[in-house]
C-alpha cells in the first residue's frame, strides 16, 4: 500500500492532521488500533475550553463526533482496528488487522500515538477491580457499564477529579481519595467545589487491596493510622506519559522534560522528529490539553504539506506561524516553555521564540 | 512498601527481585530485564517501565531523568505467528519465513 | 452493572444479545466490548496470571497491559477490552499459557 502521508493514531491530533492534509489535496491513510476513531476523546464527557479558532466550550464527546463526521466526509482512508506492529528496513511501516500483516509506504509519516496512563504500584494492584482512571471512564462513558459501586481513587490530579465527577453522576460512591503527597494535586478549584463531601486522605498510601479473586477490601496507611474500607474498585490516576515504542522502532531520538510527561521524542518547530520522514503530534509530543493537541496535529500536517510541495513555503509559513502563536496563547506557560526548549535543542540554540523566529523568517527568506 | 509487591504484572516480578538484580550490579532497565525477565512478558514493559525506573532511581540515588528507558522492539503489540507470517507478498517477514522453510526442505 | 440511561449520553445501545462465559449464557448489549459485557454481569476476574496463577481482569482498557486476556471461540489470549462481543460468542477465562500450535494446527 502506498500513500503520501500515513498517520498512526486517530485521536484528535491524528484526525486534525489528517483533515488538514486531506483538504490540501494529499493522499492520507489514518491507522488506528481501536474499533472506532477518536482516541481517548471518545469518552471525555467533560467540557473543554481553550480550543483553537475561538471554538466555544464543548464536551469532548461532542467535539469527537464532529471530528469523526468530518473525517467520514473527507477522502482520508481510515483503517480502524489496525495496529502498527513495527517498521521495516526500507522505512515502511508494518500494520496488522489481526489476521494479516502488510507494509504501508508513505512519503511522510506522522505518529500521533498519544499517551498512556501511569500505574502506581501497591500490594494488591494486580487484583481485578484495580484499574486506571481512564479504564473506569471508558467503562462508564463508552460501554455504559459500572466498574463497581464503591470506589477508592488513588491520586488527586485534574483527571482524577474529572473521573470522580463522572463516576458520581453515574451513581458510584467515592469512599476515599488517596494522595501520597501532602496536598491535593489538582489546581482546578472549581472541580473541587463541585465534589461535595468526599474523604481526602493526603500523605496516605494503599497498604493492601485484598479480596477473593477481586477487590473487596482496601487498607489505607494514613498519618493517623490504618484506615479500613469496603470498596469494590480502585482507580489509579497517576498522570500520563507519551507512548514511546513507535518512535523507538522509527529510530527517533528521545529527550526528557518532566512537565511534558518525562521521556518523549525530540522534535523541531515543524514537529519533525530526528528521523526526517517522521513527524509527531498530540500527547506524543508532550502531555498537554485538548486545544494544543489539535494545534500540534495541524502544524505537523502543514509541515508535511510544505515538504511534499502541496502548498507553497509562503503559505506553510503563514499557517505554521498562526498555529504557533495560537499554541503560545492556549497552552499552559510552563508546558509551552519546555516545548520551546526541545525546539531550541534541535537548533543547537539556547532558546527559541516562535514570534521572533517566524518574524525573522518573513524578512525575505520566504518565496513562493 | 512490602517487598513482595509485584512490579512487572506480566512476568510477576516483585520489588525484592528487582532490588536483588540492582544489588548484583544492574544499572539500567535492560540489565534488570535480562536478570529477572521484568518487562519481557506480553505487555513488553509498557506498564512497568516507569515504576521500574523509579526503583532504579531510588536505589542508585539518581534523578529520574538520568534513568533511561527499555529497548523496545518489533512487534509493538502481541501478534500471532500466523498473522506475522501472512501470505502477503509484500511482507518482508513472510519472505524470511518462506526462505527458512525452503532451506530446511533442501537439507532433508 | 449496566447503566440504563447515562446522565449525559442517554441511551446508546439498543440490541440485547446472548454470549457464553465458561459455558454459562449471559446477556450483553451489541456494541459493547467483551470486557464490558463481562463486567456488566458482575464478572471481573477474566483469568489468571501465567506464573503465579493470580486473578487478573481489566486494567488499562486500551489494549496495552494485556491483563484482560480471555479465550474467544477457541482462540486464546485475545484482548477482551478491544474485541466486540457477538451473539453466540463463546468466551472462556484465560487459565494458562497457550499450547504450542494452538488454533493454527
From TrEMBL, chain A:
**Superkingdom, taxonomy of origin:** Bacteria
Q: Where is the FAD/NAD(P)-binding domain?
A: 4-285
In terms of InterPro entries, this protein maps to:
FAD/NAD-bd_sf, FAD/NAD-binding_dom, Metab_Enz_Cyan_OpOx_G3PDH
User: Tell me, what is one Gene Ontology molecular-function annotation carried by this entry?
Assistant: oxidoreductase activity
Q: Which UniProt keywords apply?
A: Oxidoreductase
Q: Which PANTHER family match?
A: ANAEROBIC GLYCEROL-3-PHOSPHATE DEHYDROGENASE SUBUNIT B
Name of this chain's protein: Pyridine nucleotide-disulfide oxidoreductase
Automatic annotation (TrEMBL), chain B:
Question: What InterPro entries has UniProt attached to this entry?
Answer: BFD-like_2Fe2S-bd_dom, BFD-like_2Fe2S-bd_dom_sf, Metab_Enz_Cyan_OpOx_G3PDH
Q: Where is the BFD-like [2Fe-2S]-binding domain?
A: 6-57
Q: Which CDD domains match?
A: GlpA-like_Fer2_BFD-like
Which keywords label this protein? Oxidoreductase
Instruction: Enumerate the GO terms in the molecular function aspect.
Output: oxidoreductase activity
Identify this protein by name: (2Fe-2S)-binding protein
Q: Which organism is it from?
A: Oceanobacillus indicireducens
From TrEMBL, chain C:
Q: What SUPFAM superfamilies does this protein's entry cite?
A: 2Fe-2S ferredoxin-like
Domain 2Fe-2S ferredoxin-type intervals = 15-97
> Annotated Gene Ontology MF terms?
2 iron, 2 sulfur cluster binding; oxidoreductase activity
| Matching PROSITE patterns | 2FE2S_FER_1 (PS00197), 2FE2S_FER_2 (PS51085)
* Record InterPro entries: 2Fe-2S-bd_N, 2Fe-2S_ferredoxin-like_sf, 2Fe-2S_ferredoxin-type, 2Fe2S_fd_BS
Q: Does the keyword Oxidoreductase apply?
A: yes
Oxidoreductase in keyword set: yes
Q: Which Pfam families match?
A: Fer2_4
What keywords were assigned to this record?
Oxidoreductase
The protein, known as: 2Fe-2S ferredoxin-type domain-containing protein
